[in-house]
Amino acid sequence: MIKNMWLIGVLSLAFFIPVFGQNANEILKKADEKLLPESFEAYRKLINEEPDGSKKEFIFYSVKKGKDKVAMLYLSPASDKGRSTLRKGDNMWLYIPNVGRPIRITSLQSVVGGVFNNSDIMRLDYSVEYDAKFNEITDTQYILGLKAKTATVAYDQLTMWVDKKSLLVEKVECYAASGSLIKTLKFLEIKDFGNGLVRPAVIETTSPLYKGFRSLLIYSKVKLREFPDEVFTLDYIARLGELRE
Fold this sequence. Notes:
- There is one protein chain.
- The chain is of the alpha+beta class.
- Helix content is about 15%, strand content about 45%.
- It has 3 helices and 13 strands, in the order αββββββααβββββββ.
- The chain has helices spanning about 1-35, 120, 125-130; strands at about 40-50, 55-65, 70-75, 85-90, 90-95, 100-105, 130-135, 140-150, 155-165, 170-175, 180-190, 200-205, 215-225.
- The protein has a 13-stranded antiparallel sheet with strand order 6-5-4-3-2-1-13-12-11-10-9-8-7.
- The chain is globular.
């Protein structure tokens, strides 16, 4: 009798674990949908703040299609105007008009300096790069543990706090494979952008590796828009400005 009960318990646990994991991945996908539409254009400002109080600001025009295609045009400052970046899956390129051809860049580099890296400002859907499990479920939050699907992802592990009611991401901690905290992102100032898109307008990031530094990514406009695949090619990277209406 005891043996049979033990066997039933083991089989029940074996059934429960994958279902539990699947539910966590479904929560992650829904959180992705809340953060970014499938296809859109946006205007964003990035502010890098240094310990001495100085700041540097960038303004970008960004477009996204599907879960793994992102392109971005630099509108300011004047020294960077006309630059553009492209991301397709794990591959990233930077186009500089004076150079005249796209240059390969990596996810952990930062073409804008500050605490945000290339992966942060050209982020894919989290569910594309990570598998999720529940670390904890509270009365108000899902706390997810995310593990990178491949070694090419910028962060090996994430801890994500998701509001249970709205399914909006509230905070993400990014960790190296060693378990060391690399940075923390806070999702702030919920804003209605229209067409049913209600999401944080500000992402703030700090890092224990860069004491006194802070970076902010501010969404001023997000609009649903469809784009042909041609937009997300190296042949088009120098022409992103043609998309602006």
